[in-house]
Amino acid sequence: MSRIATRFAALKEQGRGALVTFLEGYDPDPATSMAILHGLPGAGADVIEIGVPFTDPMADGPSIQKGGLRALKSGATLAGVLAMVRDFRKEDSATPIVLMGYYNPVLSYGVDRFCTDAAASGVDGLIIVDVPPEEADEVEPQAKANGLDLIRLVAPTTDDARLPRVLAATSGFVYYVSITGITGTRSASTADLAAAVPRLRPHTDLPICIGFGIRTPEQAAEAARLADGAVVGTALVDTLAASLDEQGHAKPDTVRKVLDQVRALAEAVHGVRKAA
Asked: Given strand 97-101, what is the order of strands in its sheet?
């Protein structure tokens, strides 16, 4: 099995949900970003999403946009993010890593070359926000050939007619976008989530993780209770940003503050006991 499937199977056997963390690669600089990446599994992250910085991140809210700009100013490239994954794999061969980003950098890199290099670097899955299932031929054959999961976003606006098609084109896990709109701008109600997740279950056996608007340990725990995991990104990016000095440089406690927040989120998520 892939690392993603293996991790979710282990969590299911343990009766607990997953904490999926997101941060932009190279934010605010390569060394700090790498230090956080190395620390995430020990802090309780079950799956790690690394954002590939892009100049036009249409699905992302202001916080992640600013994080991407900091990363680009510090020299972020797709090749550089792949190098981060390779360095991470020297110490961790088990934690799943998903790259989340947009198609333009992948197209510029070359789709065949990218999928080959991503797999060789230790990447397990891809979330390419602006490649819908209808255009999957752009990347799906190459991803499958290299053992990369293609994780799809399902939104509240995904209707019943389109839902089976989206889920049939998904592997790894399903990323349920809990709100309509961009990341980190608001949170969905428990009632909305409680109604949404059962709508997905008949169409897929894959784990379902809830993201977009999960900010607090309490919200993360509720998402893990209703689904199979919680994705937290903007809240971590905000913590990182608040820790920087006036010039946007990391302080000595930047890494610790981000990892402490991950520990609090993980404690909440992992404290939710799920039915077998």
From this structure: 149-150, 125-128, 97-101, 47-51, 18-24, 229-232, 208-211, 174-177, 153-154
Angle at 24 between CA 225 and CA 267, to 5 degrees: 30
pTM exceeding 0.85:
yes
Write the Ramachandran bin of 267: left for phi over 0, alpha for psi from -120 to 50, otherwise beta.
alpha
What sign has the CA pseudo-torsion 105, 110, 112, 118? negative
Q: State the Cα–Cα distance between residues 25 and 118, nearest whole angstrom.
A: 14
CA distance 114 to 120: 10
pLDDT digits (tens, 9 = 90+) for 53-92: 999 888 888 999 999 999 999 999 999 999 999 999 999 9
Task: Looking at the structure, give the CATH architecture of the domain made up of residues 3-265.
Answer: Alpha-Beta Barrel (3.20)
Question: Does 87 participate in catalysis according to the annotation?
Answer: no
H or E element, residue 230: strand 229-232
Catalytic residue among 24, 27, 46, 49: 49
Residue of 24, 27, 29, 60 marked catalytic = 60
What average pLDDT does this structure show over 29-55?
98
- Catalytic site includes residue 160: no
Residue 174 CA to its chain's centroid (Å): 11
Q: Residue 106: exposed, middle, or buried by beta-carbon count in 10 A (0-12, 13-18, 19+)?
A: buried
The rounded distance, in Å, linking the Cα atoms of 102 and 67 is 15
Domain boundaries, the chain: 3-265
Instruction: Give CA–CA dist 193/191, Å, rounded.
Output: 5
| CA 157/CA 42 separation, integer angstroms | 36
